[in-house]
Amino acid sequence: LGREPEMYGRVREKTIWAYWYHPVDCPSSKRCVLPPLVQLCSESVERNRGSFDYKVMHFDEIDKYVTRLEMPFHITGMKPAIQKDALMNALLARYGGVAMDISSILLRPLDEYWEEMVASGATFRGYMYRAGGMDWGNSENMAVWFLMSRREGVFSTAVRDQVWGMGDYRLPPNKQQLGYHNPYFAMGDQTLTPILSMFNYSLPRCIEDPTVGPPWSWKDMCPEYEFPRWSGAMPGPPRNDARILLREPREGPQLPFSFADDFSMGTWRVDSDEVVNCTGPWPCLTQRDCWERVFLPRYRARAGPGRTHALEFVKLFNSGGDLKKLTRGELLSDRGTFLYHWLRLA
């Protein structure tokens, strides 16, 4: 056996990675039927991949791309969401590219994002809650549903940390086991936030957010508890051997009404005057208002003069809410929904 996995040296850095596993419908690459909504999302990425390759990973393909020494020892028995986080860390470490949740609708190619990252000399770009100064009432910092990285960058550290952090545990250990403060985010935010914080000691902190608290979140689950508070005295100045680019997700692909109607914003109608009363920094009163005053301006806007677009894709949460109950025919036949119009833009 060679020391490297079969595909090492045969994968382009500009690859968009996704992962899907279901024990019945998609146990392997040879026998996989994606849910209708997931299939449509995947088709939007294939259609708008630009100069990137696009690869949906399946469980039986893991050993072709990474070694088991880069993965938690008991990855087989872990939940698909945790498998995905660990696998994306390993893939980005070896190959670089973009790790993107498969429940995302890509509206435009990501080439501008990549070129901006490379031109600025950055090794990573992603989304961090509170990066724009807004509170976020959840005990997390990094949005791991979109990660863009050069090869052999910060994710090499993530791979090391996820292996020793998991040890011989079959599930992510909790803090009572001297493990992760939020086991669900173990391979994601709880691993990445400590690494990225080495580049900037002033990044926003979950534990200082006054909106983090019961009944929805707890400060003792914040990722800052996974590492000491770095300072110029200990261990020394922030790392300056590479750059990272961070944006606030709620100013981009996480729309302000993403969680509304039990995560079912995709069922809303672009011509409906049904009241939704979305408040906050981007208020809208009706479904039509949310489309015309929030989504469309954001879709057209750039992050600043000479900068990339603010929104290149839309992230669907909780598998799209009520959308996940519909067949492909039902999803495409209703031509007035947000989903249908996103797919048209894509």
Please specify the SSE layout and strand pairing.
Blueprint: E1 15-19, H1 36-47, E2 53-57, H2 62-65, H3 80-94, E3 97-100, E4 104-106, H4 111-119, E5 122-128, E6 142-149, H5 154-166, H6 189-196, E7 243-247, H7 260-263, E8 275-278, E9 284-286, H8 287-300, E10 313-315, H9 328-333, H10 338-345
Parallel strand pairs: 1-2, 1-3, 5-7
Antiparallel strand pairs: 3-6, 4-10, 5-6, 8-9
Helix pairs in contact: 3-5, 5-6
Structure commentary:
By secondary structure, the protein is α/β, with parallel strands linked by helices. It has two domains: 1-251, Spore Coat Polysaccharide Biosynthesis Protein SpsA, Chain A; 252-346, no CATH class. 27% of the residues lie in helices and 14% in strands. The chain has ten helices and ten strands. It has helices spanning 36-47, 62-65, 80-94, 111-119, 154-166, 189-196, 260-263, 287-300, 328-333, 338-345, and strands at residues 15-19, 53-57, 97-100, 104-106, 122-128, 142-149, 243-247, 275-278, 284-286, 313-315. The strands form three sheets. Strands 2-1-3-6-5-7 form a six-stranded mixed beta sheet, with helices on both faces. The relative contact order is 0.14. The model has no long low-confidence stretch (mean pLDDT 96).
